[in-house]
Protein 1
Amino acid sequence: MAITLVNPSGLPEVDAYHQVAVATGSRLVFLAGQVAWDADGVTVGPGDLAAQVEQCYRNVATALAEVGGTFADVAKMTIYVVDWTPDKMPQLMDGIGRAAAALGVTPVPPGTLIGVAALDVPEHLIEVEATAVLD
């Protein structure tokens, strides 16, 4: 495995992610931001943030699998949420939990959450991008 996740002493331990990822692999993989489209380009879960989060994570897993990777290879994730407010955190975490259960993973690499005004398609509520390192 090319990624070791660390929570350094002196920094808060956060349930949703680790503070540091140490990469030792040799291939960098940069995924385009994944939105809540299914394989046919149909938006999954219009108006349902948790459903869209789950689909985004499934899409990240699909993209990683295509190049021989898994969530264990993800060094960093960036999550963009439309009209973010802290009261949306339970929906976000519900979607991540559902994706983790469906995929059999615990996606907790370092991450950044950014609130945005809008995404490419009005019904998209979230976009998830990832950087992975493969051996």
Protein 2
Amino acid sequence: MKSVQIETEYVTLGQFLKMIDVIGSGGLAKWFLEENEVRVNGEKEQRRGRKLKPGDKIEIPDVGEFKIIG
């Protein structure tokens, strides 16, 4: 599992996908979430605006598992 450090209280799922270089721009987040399974803390998530806070775990098949740290 890879740790992803954030400097703010939270990041959105769309920002997170851009941070880990899964998408090139924030505009692709909606498409990516429709086409790929993304789980946040074990639950399937499709909202690009979902707030990710330290302690949250994100799983993306064929990409990896990540943990948000503050």
